[in-house]
Write the structure tokens for this entry.
Amino acid sequence: MHLTALDVRDLRVVASAALEPDPGLNLITGANAAGKTSLLEAIHVLSTGRSFAATRPARLVRHGGGPLRVVGRIVDAHGRVHRLGVERERTGVARMRLDGANAGQVADLARLLPVIAVHPESHDLVGGGPDERRRLLDLGLFHVEHDFHSVWRRYRRALAQRNAVLRGAGGGEFKPWEQELAAAGEALDASRRHYVDRLAATVLPMKDELLKEEPGLELGYQRGWPEGVTLYEALVAERARQRDVVSTGVGPHRADLTIRLNGREARQQVSRGQQKLLVYLLRLGQARQLAHSDVGGCVLLLDDVGAELDEVRRGRVTDLASRVGAQVFLTALEPGAVPRPAGVSARVFHVEQGAVHEMV
């Protein structure tokens, strides 16, 4: 699976850009604020309808322009060609197209164009709270388990309904929603637990390629409610213990992926640069999993690879990224800032004031 053409209109500083990327490695160079990251955002918008940066949709639309429009052509794992498109107004209203017809939901695009992004704020995956780590697990499961998305949506709906009843806003009784929440939550938990085992089996053999100086990497899973009881029992016990509770405090929405080095939590002992290497390791492990799944690969977006990494570690990242079976887009100030692996096909694009051209 790879992207064969990308056309961008009115996204941040990019008024108009078109490129035909390499199925392997693509390096996007240019000065700060020239529009390098905007091209990566465009690919992310094409897959998910939104940027990987935490920003309101209106801010993606170029000042004085609009609507934002991103169109792409991909070849899937079976050699079939698909055309995807996303158009977004400054008001946030989005229209999605797939093979000439309206797409029912953004998940239809995401399934065809799996995207994994690593950017300067990605260190929060290791050093921040559990939300980002849960998203990592759920992104991976979305692409490898066909039923996962429906179970996840079922759980979120039951959680919202139980919270409404807790606040006295939803009417009705607790039992039906707690039964539904427990059934979906137990299924969600089982999927995540198995996924962590599979991710560890992929990531641990790769560890020394990026973090050979760090001993004893372990990945684990905390499910979000006490061991030894079912989720339904934990929900009932929570109400009995705390009568004024207004939101559900137990369940998979409280789960966490644990990352340990030498027996201690990684976030308690590693530098920002080491956090970034751990993020690369986890994300590249996911990319390798997708390459060996029915999906047939993914698109890796690596924004500002040089941030907080020396030349040796930048080289390790790009070398491993080129070998995980993904199509890679990475940004840098200039071509020499990122070591390119020998024997790997690559295209280099230069961005200047939002205009893009391929360098020969």
Summary: The mean pLDDT is 92. The chain has eleven helices and 15 strands.
